[in-house]
UniProtKB/TrEMBL annotation:
Residues 48-188 form the VanZ-like domain. The lineage of its organism: Bacteria, Bacillati, Actinomycetota, Actinomycetes, Pseudonocardiales. InterPro entries: Teicoplanin_resist-assoc, VanZ-like. It comes from the Bacteria. This is Glycopeptide antibiotics resistance protein. The keyword Membrane applies. The chain crosses the membrane at residues 6-27, 39-61, 107-125, 132-159, 171-191, 212-237, 249-270, 291-310, 316-338. Residues 400-412 have a biased composition (Basic and acidic residues). It holds the Pfam family VanZ. Keywords: Membrane, Transmembrane, Transmembrane helix.
Length: 412
């Protein structure tokens, strides 16, 4: 793999791993802080994660081995402390060949790339963390100082001598990039899926996408908890042994059986799977009352219970069972799209509905002021919100209100 591509590949791989580990708490926080998961917010957050890891990867990679003569091999690395020294030859280049020669000049390209490298820094810091213009520039300057001193000190003295160049021109270019990014940060407001339409405590409709998100969270819970259980069992009993010793059974049950049982326990005790709790859903009977425990068990058996059994069987003796498990998951996902009330297969078999946990709540939660996004800081959202609140209050006093305000529309 090319040395130019390797840092990007490493950064993307790490970003996917970190995103998988942080996905559950991120979704739970978004639903409790904003009332819903905004796809735009999630995409920007993932892009920021990729950017930060990519920045670190390109600073650190390649990591050369330390051996005899290491410092002698990098004796040419000396700090460049003369401002704009790398651009000293650009006037002559421009005079001899014009703009075309300037654009292909390596010194100009490097300076321009260093500017572009920190444009996302300024955009993300100002948009995501709501920092002012000067604060954003200061954070960008601090970040580029950290990077340059990391190179100057040989990754903070982990190496006996620096192997990358400290260059004040890089500081200037990166700082300029942060300024440009701070100016361009409002462009990120154009990414759809960032605005919240109501206060966090107001119930949201139970859509197919919300149900699918809860299922995805449950699958991730099973995968993470199953691998943790597998590591514990492997450490306790090892990996050797034949089938008659029972070790394959132990490992298979630990990886998929125990997580499925975890989902079932949550359903019986809390009347909601872990994924449903993350997206603020719970199971109720048709009349809106508390779901019976037996019906919750039927919900589990027809869904994650059967999925766990098939996955366990695939690890023990019948490998094709994994495809049956995948088909079962796909069938449940499609059924959410085809059933008008989003009950899905488990809901039809158990007679239960999934509703928003905020249905029927009284008190300040439903009337709390929603969190304002960057989109609303221009005054447009602030002006519209009192009108929405007054309109809702007037409708409720008249005893009417829109269909979206009625609790029954939050059923699955």
């Amino acid at each position: 793999m090319s040395i130019r591509v390797l840092p990007g590949f490493v950064a993307l791989t790490l970003a996917i791993v970190v995103a998988a580990l942080a996905f559950l708490p991120y979704v739970a926080r978004q639903y409790r802080r904003r009332g819903q998961l905004g796809l735009g917010h999630a995409l920007i957050a993932f892009a920021f994660l990729c950017y930060i890891l990519g920045l670190l990867a390109y600073v650190l990679i390649p990591i050369p081995p330390v051996g005899p003569g290491f410092c002698e091999a990098y004796s040419w690395v000396r700090p460049q402390l003369t401002p704009l020294a790398s651009l000293s030859g650009l006037p002559a280049t421009f005079g001899s060949g014009g703009v075309r020669s300037l654009l292909v000049d390596s010194a100009f390209q490097q300076f321009a790339m260093n500017i572009a490298l920190f444009v996302p820094m300024g955009m993300f810091v100002r948009h995501m963390f709501r920092r002012g213009f000067l604060a954003t520039i200061a954070i960008g300057a601090a970040a580029t100082l950290f990077i340059e001193f990391t190179q100057l000190t040989g990754i903070w003295f982990l190496y006996p001598c620096p192997y990358r160049l400290f260059d004040v021109d890089d500081l200037a270019a990166n700082g300029l990039g942060a300024v440009v990014g701070a100016v361009l940060a409002p462009l990120l407001r154009l990414v759809p899926g960032q605005r919240t339409g109501a206060a966090p405590g107001v119930p949201r409709p139970v859509t197919a996408s919300r149900r699918l998100l809860g299922m995805a969270c449950d699958l991730l819970v099973m995968w993470l908890s199953g691998n943790v259980a597998l590591l514990i069992v492997t450490a306790a009993v090892g990996t050797g042994g034949a089938a008659e010793d029972g070790l394959p059974w132990i490992h298979a049950v630990a990886q998929w059986g125990l997580p499925a049982a975890l989902i079932g326990t949550s359903l019986v005790v809390r009347r909601a799977t872990p994924g449903q709790q993350i997206v603020l859903l719970r199971l109720t009977s048709v009349d809106g009352g508390r779901a019976a425990a037996l019906r919750a068990v039927v919900w589990w058996i027809s869904g994650f219970g059967a999925f766990g059994v098939l996955q366990t069987a695939a690890l023990i003796w019948w490998a094709p069972a994994v495809w049956a498990a995948v088909a079962l998951a796909g069938l449940h996902a499609v059924s959410l799209l085809l059933t008008a009330d989003r009950r899905g297969i488990s809901g039809m078999l158990s007679g239960l509905h999934a509703v928003d946990v905020r249905v029927g709540r009284d008190g300040p939660a439903g009337s709390a002021t929603p969190e304002t996004d960057e989109d609303d800081q221009t005054g447009e959202g602030a002006a519209a919100e009192p009108q929405r609140q007054s309109g809702t209050t007037a409708s409720s006093r008249r005893g009417g209100g829109s269909e979206h305000d009625r609790p029954q529309n939050t059923r699955a």
